[in-house]
Design brief:
5 strands; alpha+beta; 34% helix
């Protein structure tokens, strides 16, 4: 139980590795490259949860095939500080195929000196790909800090046509 919701988790095996996806009755609550090891076991048969997970598999598959540029999945942030949620919300404004920098995000959230905190929030993003933290790069153009690894980050950016 996370927060006050039962969650269910599945594994989606992509060409980049296993993506773990969790949902609760309000939407997708986690999508990441690491298993978050939910407890208790995922036995909830709520049909909304099952539908969200099925839809997530389909939308991720379409995205990775290059045919989806925007996600329609409902998301729910069940963890994170108010600052992290502010950063994650700003990441949703980065268009498909575009990149921005950690310092640009810091400016946009009203904390221009909090570049490292933005990087930390990016690293704790519970909804990778859906909240496109892979579109944030260093000022120098260098790729860094992606939970799936720099190669996956580069591959996702190349998939989107955001050649860095």
């Amino acid at each position: 139980m996370i927060g006050s919701f039962t969650e269910r988790q599945i594994e989606y095996h992509s060409k980049f590795g296993t993506i773990y996806i969790c949902a609760n009755p309000n939407g997708i609550s986690y999508m990441g490259w690491e298993d978050q090891e939910l407890d208790p076991p995922h036995l909830d048969d709520d049909q909304r949860i099952i539908k969200y997970l099925h839809d997530a598999e389909g939308e991720i598959e379409e995205y990775l095939a290059g045919s989806r540029k925007r996600f329609t999945l409902p998301i729910t942030l069940t963890r994170g500080t108010s600052f992290q949620k502010k950063v994650w919300s700003e990441l949703l404004n980065i268009p498909y195929g575009k990149t921005t920098t950690y310092s640009d995000i810091a400016q946009k959230v009203g904390s221009p000196d909090a570049v490292q905190a933005v990087g930390s929030a990016n690293g704790k993003n519970p909804l990778c790909i859906l909240i496109p933290c892979h579109r944030v790069i260093n000022k120098s153009g260098e790729l860094s800090g992606y939970a799936g690894g720099a190669q996956v980050k580069e591959a996702l950016l190349n998939l989107e046509g955001a050649f860095v």
